[in-house]
Design a protein that fits this description.
It contains three helices and eight strands; from the N terminus they run E-E-H-E-E-H-H-E-E-E-E. By secondary structure, it is an alpha+beta fold. It has one domain: Jelly Rolls (Sandwich), CATH 2.60.120. The mean pLDDT is 98.
């Protein structure tokens, strides 16, 4: 069985962002040489997410509005976590959007359904953050 590991690093200029990382994951699959297996992609920070959805700007705006209603950034003092940091909302947003995705690899390619893409969701940006790609298979 083959195993391949790659880290991606992101520094978003804004506090929150949604980045389509599908091309980077596809490149890692090609580099791995795995033809049949699994690809795990996970956020390595507790205020970021990796998820699968459609790459459509309106939908990303809907995510932003929905998450901000569920866990508004301000007022900061509404959260017991906030003190030295002001990112309690980012922890909650990550909990909703999820930590990781696993995608089958078939014929050396990610085995997606229609419109599926992999996204890195940042909820407390403006500093370097990482995502891990781990590929196993034959």
């Amino acid at each position: 069985m083959k195993s391949h590991r790659k880290e991606l690093t992101f520094t978003t200029p804004a506090r929150r962002a949604y980045l389509n990382i599908t091309p980077q994951v596809e490149e890692a699959v090609r580099a791995s040489g795995v033809k049949e297996g699994l690809c795990l992609v996970n956020a390595m920070h507790i205020t970021a997410s990796v998820f699968i959805n459609d790459d459509e700007r309106g939908l990303h705006g809907d995510f932003e509005r929905w998450l901000e209603r569920l866990a508004p950034e301000k007022p900061y003092e509404q959260y017991a976590h906030n003190g030295a940091e002001d990112n309690a909302d980012a922890h909650l947003k990550r909990q909703v959007m999820g930590r990781e995705v696993t995608v089958a690899i078939t014929g050396g390619r990610l085995d997606f359904g229609p419109w599926e893409q992999i996204f890195y969701g940042e909820f407390d940006g403006r500093r370097p953050k990482r995502a891990l790609i781990k590929i196993i298979g034959e």
